[in-house]
Design goal:
The structure is a single chain. The chain has helices spanning about 50-65, 95-105, 110-125, 180, 190-205, 215-225, 230-235, 240-250, 260-275, 275-280, 300-315, 320-330, 335-340, 350-355, and strands at about 10, 10-20, 25-30, 35-40, 75-80, 85-90, 95, 130, 140-145, 150, 155-160. By secondary structure, the protein is of the alpha+beta class. It has three domains: about 10-90, Phosphorylase Kinase, domain 1, CATH 3.30.200; about 95-280, Transferase(Phosphotransferase), domain 1, CATH 1.10.510.10; about 300-360. α3 packs antiparallel against α5, α3 runs antiparallel to α9 and α5 (about 190-205) runs antiparallel to α8. The chain is globular and about 65 Å long.
């Protein structure tokens, strides 16, 4: 089912396109009876999707139905239409934090206010047993009244769910991933704390704490590199605030804030003790384009991806699963996938050895 502006689905008229992502398309809609403007999320309209993707979408619907907090997007209803899953959510008019960071500089007070609202929403979600797993600026919507709404719980999991303890699942956005998430290990609320730490670091310095020329280098930096102290990049911020950020970015989860509430309380204390500095300081504009999700691959079977990951791991180690997962979102064919991940192999001989394994999938284009 393709959807275009002007179409009517049930009692909703499509009035605009808000965005697309790995889990589906989001449209602006008008309820034909109440005339309320809302957001409609449709699971990959017009294309086949795996049972796993359908399961994630259903889980997002059910999790959002259980969450009611001013800093979390509210679910209004969900239904099926011509075999397609439909989610209706509140419409928030504004910009994502990603767009705000790349558009203009902002005051330190404003930036901290946004992060405090994010942490408030996460505190509530965590206390309901929900871990978001994909906190990043493009999933933080800022309304025209400066109210923050945390978006996209498509990767969220209940902390006690059976899938939550399954290792080897690498989902999320690499620049904001905690080390344990990069390695596909068990996640908890402290993984979200790390992602908020990355986002706050980016706010304060205009730069990500962990960068690289390839996904392998970024993943390795999460695991091994020590971030530059934010106050060394932006001397205008309080030293106490810089220490809070670095604690949130600690590599062992046990060295971070143990809860979003603890992180929020530390920021509250900094704001209370540094009122003059925070009131006058300005934040730098973010450098370059901020990270976003690649469109999800439509054709390469998950079993093939697992096999390719095992072959690649012989040359690059356990990070192979991350590299293959990311490349699969860009590659339209298996040949493109091989070409993308082969660039991460350090020597020509090893690269050719890996590329030679492509023949195992000769029937797969």
């Amino acid at each position: 089912m393709s959807i275009t502006v002007g179409d009517q689905i049930g009692d909703y008229e499509i009035t605009g396109i808000l965005g697309t992502g790995g889990m589906g398309h989001v449209f602006q809609v008008r309820h034909t009876i109440s005339h309320r403007i809302e957001a409609m999320k449709v699971l990959a309209p017009g294309r086949p999707v795996s049972d796993e993707v359908v399961g994630r979408f259903l889980r997002e619907i059910r999790l959002l139905a259980s969450l009611h907090h001013p800093n979390i997007t509210e679910l209004h209803t969900a239904f099926r239409h011509n075999g397609e899953l439909i989610m209706i959510m509140e419409f928030v008019e504004g910009l994502t934090l990603s767009a705000k960071l790349s558009k203009n500089s902002m005051s330190l007070a404003t930036g901290l206010n946004y992060i405090q609202q994010v942490l408030s929403g996460l505190t509530y979600a965590h206390e309901q047993g929900i871990v978001h797993r994909d906190v990043k600026p493009s999933n933080i919507m800022i309304g025209q009244d400066d109210r923050v709404k945390l978006l996209d719980f498509g990767l969220a999991l209940p902390a006690l769910g059976h899938e939550f303890t399954r290792t080897g699942m690498i989902l999320g956005s690499l620049p904001y991933m905690a080390p344990e998430q990069v390695l596909g290990k068990q996640l908890d609320a402290r993984s979200d704390v790390y992602a908020v730490g990355v986002t706050l670091y980016q706010l304060l310095t205009g730069s990500l704490p962990f960068k690289g020329g390839s996904e392998y280098e970024i993943a390795s930096a999460h695991l091994k590199s020590v971030p530059v102290d934010p106050v060394a990049i932006n001397p205008g911020i309080p030293v106490r605030l810089s220490k809070v950020v670095l604690k949130a970015l600690a590599k062992p989860p046990g060295d971070r804030f143990q809860t979003a509430r603890e992180f929020l309380e530390s920021l509250n204390m900094v704001r209370a003790g540094e009122t003059t500095t925070i009131a006058t300081a300005m934040l730098p504009r973010a450098e370059g384009a901020l990270a976003s999700n690649w469109p999800e691959n439509k054709v390469i079977d998950a079993g093939i991806l697992d096999s390719v990951s095992r072959d690649l791991a012989l040359h690059v180690g356990p990070i192979a699963k991350v590299l293959v997962s990311r490349a699969a979102k860009r590659a339209a064919t298996l040949d493109e996938l091989f070409a993308l991940v082969a660039t991460e192999i350090s020597t020509e001989k090893k690269r050719q050895d890996f590329l030679s394994t492509r023949t195992k999938y000769s029937v797969y284009k």
